[in-house]
Amino acid sequence: MKSIYKGLVLLISLNIFSQQENEIIDSLNVFELEEVRVSTIRAKTTDPVTQTNITKDYISSRNLGQDIPILLNYLPGVITTSDAGTGIGYTGIRIRGSDASRVNVTLNGIPFNDSESQATYWVNLPDFASSIENIQIQRGVGTSTNGPGAFGASLNILTDVMQEETSASLSSSIGSFNTFKNTLKFSTGLLNDHIEISGRLSKITSDGYIDRAASNLKSYFLQGAFKDKNTLIKAIAFGGHEITYQSWYGTEDLSQRTYNPAGAIYDQNGLITGFYDSQEDNYRQDHYQFHWNEKINNLWTLSFGINYTHGRGYYEEYNDSFIGNTDFTYLQLSPFEIGQETVSETENITRKWLDNDYYVFTVSSNFVKNKTRLDLGLLLSRYLGDHFGTLIWAQTPGDILPRKRFYDNQGDKKEINFYAKLEQPFNDRINGFIDLQYRYVDYFIDGIAAGPQIFEVDSNFKFFNPKTGLTYQANDISQFYFSFSKAQREPSRVDYENGNPKPEVLNNFELGWRVNRNSFQVYSNLYLMLYKDQLALTGSLDEVGTPIRENIGESSRLGIEIEIKASISDNWFLQPNLSISKNTNKNFYFKRDGVLTYLGNTKLSYSPELVVGNILFYKPSNNFGASLLTKFVGEQYMSNIESKKSKLESYFVNDINISYQLKPKKFFNKVNLTLLINNIFNQKYVSNGYFYTYDDDWSSPSQIKTIEGVGYYPQAGTNLIVGLDLKF
């Protein structure tokens, strides 16, 4: 009876928590082939690269529905943001002050950053953390990778490895703001010692902390794998569908922390009478990957991958005469006469669409002989993006066809990326590393952008990015490293929409010291990042909430990072980290009140000088654990001009995570209970916002006055999520 029950559960359930590392694969060769998929773009422990490696256990302990950036919040130099205030929906991550568009992300070696915007939209892959095996974070430029260059960090993600044992589980969590998550996951285990099929289905809903910042998220992950002694083949399909009510407007008044102006409907006197129900972002994204990993002989391994990603969706907006675009010129409508009155504007509802396709081919080869290691990699990719807007309703439209397009343009981006990495020991203590990368990018846009305005881009870039360094093994527990890395990046679509941007250049120097003992590890490093023409955040947003950047000439980041992992006793563990930095715009100018003013050296936007994190973990037994998670982020400016109005105050937040595991004798192999209490001291803090300026030249004809404005994204006070995981 038990075996029948288990089989039925296998058909309808999927497992949330992956097997422990020593339960996953007994064959070392197969696990090594799993790593081949990402090995050429990952740093080794002997490489002169500042890195942090994250296991699935670190991720799963708090995986109750929040996005991947939130799960990485307590790592060195990391700052996370959430539009809805809860970590569900639109979230972002900054590392070393660099925003998400400058953090390179790969999934099994395939670029995840959107080719045009260069941003990472984790909302498109809800609950992806439930299908992750491990993550490597390289801070700074790091080693050569696929996709746009890393200007703050790179995240290399490996999805679930093969499991030998049959498994299935159902996971549910429920929490504040009507948060509800269900995840089903399964694995057939190895069939005939060679084949495994596994998968996951997830659904997450939440009302959000901010008014109407609701999320309705669905996702899936399906994997078929074949392995033998020297071969590993995987076909993977994953994706998600997100519907989120727009909450990127923020609030200008922190006394109304949850206020959301999105979708406001006004009467003739300018008073709000209600909100539009479908002021939402509706987007679906599907990824299809095929990976073949082959061990040629004892010296060579070969891997190639094919990826196709299809995304499609829209922003739907109600545009009122008091806010939004109602002008006929913007909507490309013809004015018409009603009696003696000319109608040239109308309240309306629009959808701004993106329909895109992304094709990627990668091939990599790895050679290891004694301690000499050679990695070779090639990426070919093409991105096709169709951007258009449709008018789906208007109050007084005149004579128009249904679903009229009021703008339409297409983006076409091609990339060739080749890299070669050599790791060569000079003697028993000194190890040399050299990494050479060539990237060719061709970017073409043609059509009409919203406005309307002609939008044309025809640019190509040739980047040569060398990296080199040394590692010195002082003794069995102590290691030093030094490296120099160069990175160059092309502008994004939004950069082109807002001017004539230049590519940016970064020279990155890293000096590190690693101490590794059984119960005590220290990873410390100094870094210097010198930018030319950095595309830095201005603080402003465009009309769909995308951050606006501009070239700022010369700038720099100088900092120190310390990460410690220590066993205080048999039951107590401590993981503190510290990031101190100085982030500078050099010789900065700003046009205020119509006059170009020299400001000298100013602080870079969104770059706090102090970021501290800590995890205090208590584990008195194998089935119980409790953690206190602490984060301090120093004050920061949302502008590059050090405007007092643009300052975000520092904040200090603490969470508690408790887990308990049962092993029943019937029905279930394991039952995991989890409690996550966020912001236990109910701090009223803001982790993100926006800042803008404009020149008022109409109030006083003889004087131009620069006006400043701000918006904030308040985060939720004390809130909790409770999780139950049933493993069969």
CATH superfamily: TonB-dependent receptor, beta-barrel domain
The radius of gyration is 26 Å
CATH architecture: Beta Barrel
Q: What's the rounded overall pLDDT mean?
A: 92
Low-confidence stretches: 1-28
Largest sheet entry: 22 strands, antiparallel, barrel
Identify the CATH class: Mainly Beta
Tally of DSSP helical segments: 7
Q: What is the domain tally?
A: 1
Helix content: under 10%
* End-to-end CA span: 14 Å
The helix/strand class is: mainly beta
Strand-residue fraction? over 45%
Q: Write down the overall geometry.
A: globular
Please tell me about this protein's structure.
The chain is mostly beta strands and 728 residues long. It has a single domain, classed as Maltoporin, Chain A (Beta Barrel), CATH 2.40.170. Helix content is 6%, strand content 58%. The protein has 7 helices and 41 strands. The protein has a 22-stranded antiparallel β-barrel. Strands 1-6-7-4-5 form a 5-stranded mixed β-sheet. Strands 2-3 form a two-stranded antiparallel ribbon. It is globular and about 85 Å long. Mean pLDDT is 92; it is low at 1-28.
What topology does this entry show?
Blueprint lengths: L1 H11 L8 H4 L3 H12 L11 E5 H5 L7 H4 L6 E5 L8 E5 L7 E5 L2 E2 L20 E8 L13 E7 L7 E9 L3 E9 L7 E12 L8 E13 L3 E15 L18 E3 L5 E4 L4 E16 L4 E20 L8 H4 L4 E3 L2 E3 L4 E22 L2 E23 L9 E22 L4 E20 L3 E2 L2 E17 L4 E12 L3 H5 L6 E14 L2 E13 L2 E7 L5 E5 L2 E14 L4 E21 L2 E9 L6 E12 L2 E10 L2 E2 L9 E2 L2 E12 L7 E9 L7 E11 L8 E10 L4 E9 L1
Parallel strand pairs: 4-7
Antiparallel strand pairs: 1-6, 2-3, 4-5, 6-7, 8-9, 8-41, 9-10, 10-11, 11-12, 12-15, 13-14, 15-16, 16-19, 17-18, 19-20, 20-21, 21-22, 22-23, 22-24, 24-25, 25-26, 26-27, 27-30, 28-29, 30-31, 31-32, 31-33, 33-34, 34-37, 35-36, 37-38, 38-41, 39-40
